[in-house]
Design a protein that fits this description.
The protein is an all-alpha fold. The chain contains 9 helices and no strands. Helices cover 83% and strands 0% of the residues.
Length: 262
């Protein structure tokens, strides 16, 4: 439930909410420290500086760790798009090894299959539409395999038919690989931990300012903005079909154009 909310909500809205929460916590920390300073009951500045530095370092480490995870997942999804488009293109070329009418039927099915793969990327985070397109892809795979086995049975050249079946099998396998790659997100507990540690860091920064009696609004606000921007970048990298940074589909689109060109 929370995971769906995090990945469905527009990234700018999430940034604004996180920034607002952290700014409020900085202000609360400042007021608590100012009140404690008036009563001379606050934490010593040396103790606070050590704790604040430790929490900020932990937050920076979590952001770096999660960014590396998101970047790795993004690169894997990008490589799979190219691998799948190459596999489909190879399969299409190898239909020339088969006899009619299966050759033309398989070519037509492969063109439809490429259309489905491109449409799958364009649905964004619409889970219902995505599931429908995945189901349509699986049905089309069954049709492709059925016609391929019939064509192979009628083809005297077993080496040629074996090459075609191998490439078609790669196409079917890559569908599931891409589906798993899309679902392989940065674990939600890590995202929640980043937000939680960020809240603690914001309160400590505000408390430190309160002990000094100076708000230092712009330095603390800019630091908060930097942390929120990096966290937003991590989430954006982890959204393969929406957001600012999207997995390129140019290789699949070029394949669609080439298969439809005369």
């Amino acid at each position: 439930m929370i995971g769906n909310l995090v990945y469905r909500t527009p990234i700018l809205l999430l940034c604004a909410a996180a920034l607002a929460v952290w700014v409020v916590l900085i202000e609360l920390g400042f007021r608590v420290a100012a009140r404690a300073r008036r009563r001379s009951a606050g934490v010593s500045p040396a103790q606070l500086s050590t704790t604040e530095a430790a929490v900020l370092s932990l937050l920076a480490l979590l952001l770096a760790f999660s960014f590396a995870m998101a970047q790795g997942r993004y690169d894997a999804r990008r490589a799979l798009v190219l691998e799948e488009s190459n596999a489909i293109g190879t399969t299409y070329l190898r239909t020339a090894l088969l006899d009619e009418p299966e050759r033309s039927e398989l070519q037509s099915l492969l063109r439809r299959y490429v259309d489905l793969r491109v449409a799958l990327h364009e649905v964004g985070f619409d889970a219902r539409r995505r599931d429908a397109l995945n189901a349509a892809s699986v049905r089309l795979q069954a049709q492709l395999w059925d016609k391929a086995t019939r064509a192979v049975a009628r083809t005297p050249n077993q080496i040629a038919s074996g090459l075609f079946l191998r490439s078609l099998n790669d196409v079917i396998d890559l569908h599931e690989k891409r589906r798993v790659a899309v679902e392989n997100l940065v674990p939600l507990p890590i995202v929640e931990l980043i937000f939680f540690v960020g809240c603690i860091a914001a309160a400590l920064v505000g408390y430190d300012c309160g002990l000094d009696g100076a708000r230092r609004f712009w330095p603390t606000f800019l630091a908060t903005l930097v942390f929120v921007s990096v966290a937003a970048l991590v989430l954006d990298l982890d959204r393969p079909s929406r957001g600012v940074i999207r997995v390129p589909q140019e290789s699949m689109i070029r394949l669609r154009h080439s298969l439809r060109s005369p």
